[in-house]
Amino acid sequence: MRLGIFGGTFNPIHYGHLRVAEEVRYGRCLDRIIFIPSGSPSLKTSEIADAGHRYKMTCMATASNPDFGVSDIEMNSTVKSYTVNTVVKLNEIYPRDELYLIMGVDVFLDLPAWREPERLVSLIDFIIMTRPGCLVDELGKSPFVESYGEAGKDIFRLRGGRTANLIQVTACDIASTTIRQLLREGRSIKYLLPEAVEQYIADSGLYRI
Questions:
Q1: Model's pTM, two decimal places?
Q2: Checking DSSP bridges between strand 163-167 and strand 152-158, what pairing results, if any?
Q3: CA 64 to CA 86: how far, in whole Å?
């Protein structure tokens, strides 16, 4: 199977996350998208809901799509989660499947600041989504890109032998930070995220402070 790995804090998950995941699944002929909510950071703030809440919301948001799944691989870790370690574990769990790590252009360009980025780009293929305000041509300047643009700009080679697929996705002007701000102000968040997630946030009293 061809599996897309979509990690994030999902704090909270919203329609922007869901829509781009569906576009990536369809546009790159993936069999399934696996959402991976990040574990709780070591320096928690009131802005970040506990991993358990974010996991439940992600499950609720994706429940209606049989091509979506949710993994608790990071939230159940006893140590701080790093993407490179998560990918190693996923390769062990899915040894016969093709895995693709999904992220935005901005996140990919930030890879030099990640844990063991050279190793990460040798472990898995990438699917990179366009993002508003991010120049796609900047990808060619990444230290992890070996060749870019020779055979079109949708597929290029990474150092370590892996590839990255660039995909144009709908620019959804929805952000988790905006949703949290609206909640703090006592304003409506309807139609920004699934109704079940909205109700869960209300019932749990999340993001009110």
A1: 0.93
A2: antiparallel
A3: 26
